[in-house]
């Protein structure tokens, strides 16, 4: 059966009963559900997903924490939806979220960093935020970076060809992103997308332009995922990549699959499907030993 990919966000919150009904309907129609959630265990949306899964007693729901800005999380969900149309099974798709997140380069052009808590902000940058007209280039993933946005100094980007998704907030011109940054990052295409509803809270200001460099070619994504060794989960029988099955929680111990721990009786909110963002093609990077080892952490 096919798999459904979902991503949680504050604007997707619905009454618990509705989430249980929607999740049950999605499982009935598609077989498996992969849900991308925030990394914090105490996040209320993540806890709701666990509650829904527990209510349904459903081992066909994989809850995958991703530590990404809002736009990057939506693009990762889009990549997984593309791959769901291939012959990859649900266990591999769930593990692919951890692998493919390493190929996203995400940041924002901010008009203020006074409330930014996602990267370290020096005192000098806080003071410069008080000066009208100052803009800051901030990268949150894969490595944090903060500097003043200058045409002659652009932060390092991906070492492979990508497309650049740009989401316009208010009060900040996107010219630096679509111009100097896109050229320095060798973007094959600049794509304008709606600003995610959670972006202003995540970045600490609504004066922003959020951007993410990503691989849009499903053939390249497929090559990256299929280059990683697969195992068969000895507990639920799914093909998986990485150190554990994200559906039943069985872990890998050498060549053995270990029985998953008992789950607490609590549970579920997979947000409804995130808005679709249409893709384009880009050349393939190579999977490095770093990305392979990241699946085993």
The parts where pLDDT drops under 50 for at least 5 residues are: 254-283
Tally the beta strands. 13
Please give the count of helices: 9
Summing up helix and strand content along with how strands pair, one would put the structural category as alpha/beta
Question: Structurally, how many domains make up the residues?
Answer: 2
H/E topology pattern = EHEHEHHEHEEEHEHEHEEEEH
| Amino-to-carboxy terminus distance | 29 Å
Largest sheet: 6 strands, mixed
Strand order of the largest sheet: 6-5-4-9-7-8
Mean pLDDT: 83
Radius of gyration: 20 Å
Strand content: 15-25%
Biased composition (Low complexity): 274-285
Region (Disordered): 257-297
What this model shows, in words?
The protein is an alpha/beta fold and 297 residues long. It has two domains: 3-103 and 217-229 and 266-291, no CATH class; 105-214, Hypothetical Protein Tm841, Chain: A,domain 3 (2-Layer Sandwich). Helices cover 30% and strands 20% of the residues. The strands form four sheets. A six-stranded mixed β-sheet has the order 6-5-4-9-7-8, sandwiched between helices. Helix 1 (16-30) links the parallel strand 1 (3-7) and strand 2 (32-37). Helix 3 (70-84) packs antiparallel against helix 4. The chain is globular, with a radius of gyration of 20 Å.
